[in-house]
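Problem 12. The chain below contains 190 residues. Write out its predicted structure in token notation.
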Amino acid sequence: MTDPDTSARKRTIVLVGLMGAGKSCIGRRLAQQLDLPFVDADREIEAAAGRTVAEIFETHGERAFRDGERRVILRLLDGPPHVLATGGGAYMDPDTRAAIRNKAIAIWLRADLDLMVKRVSRRNDRPLLKGVDPREKLATLIDQRYPIYAEADLVVDSIDAPPEETVAAVRRALEAHLRGAVQAAERIAS
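Solution.
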């Protein structure tokens, strides 16, 4: 039987979810444990554009940002396996979602509203929260995005605890998913 850790290193693992769910924090730790590179899609977009996400939103608008985001994520998915933390809106794009489904394992880091409000209050560089009540905006985004995020291969709750606890939950879910895929392939082969 194939080792789940080895199988996990064969495909890119994409973390999706709302801002404040912990995608970058959990992604870095997960990548380290799996001995894979970690990539933050927003940092890659900033590098490609030569400006911050906030500047792209302000200068060109959300639509232009989403177009660039899609191109960057598609390029990253064509590269070697890694752990990829996406921006909160990336998985909402049907083309991006289809590419992730075909080339990676998508893990939705689901967090409750109170936790995300607590986490996003630590930073003031989130374009979708500029000039709005964060709790109200996140509640609206939950209603809009959670049904789409639910299409991910795996769902893991991001909890208000040391990050290692959520990383361990991601590892358990990933290992169970990969074990199931290996067993299904073995059944088909026999």
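Discussion. The CA atoms of residues 57 and 139 lie 21 Å apart. Students who got a different answer should revisit the alignment rule from Section 12.3.
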